[in-house]
């Protein structure tokens, strides 16, 4: 859902603070209900993709009976001056899944510490993750809290390894639409 811009890394952290899976599921549902569309559609599609097609179908039917939401339409007409989500955050979030599954964080974190984008403590926190994916999630969480300089240095770090050059190009050239800005802006309200 992060890659679809309907939840932020802060939302993810709030969800994961709950001890049990049931409580985490409830926290996610609370966010989806609060945000309405398009969070609801992304949630339903996620259910379908992860083997819960029957629940997804039931939810789709229920939502169609209620009628289309006007939330996104209203968001698209909000004044742009009210939007404070930097474009690089959208580029990072839209590529979130690719980053957490495809990279090896060590050299990237070392580069970011060397360039003073991250502290040694940030590096230790990232290393405390149990799995490579968890470490990459912490890296992304840290990057999404940094400024555009951190984003630029992250791309430089990716490009140092020929394996990640295409990923760096993909992230840098990610299309950011008004709809993307509207959706992510809703996460930070």
TrEMBL record:
This is CARD domain-containing protein. CDD domains: CARD. PANTHER family: DEATH DOMAIN-CONTAINING PROTEIN CRADD. It comes from Mytilus edulis (Blue mussel). Transmembrane segments: none annotated. GO terms for biological process: regulation of apoptotic process. Residues 1-49, 92-160 form the CARD domain. One of its GO terms (molecular function) is death domain binding. PROSITE patterns: CARD (PS50209). InterPro entries: CARD, CRADD, DEATH-like_dom_sf.
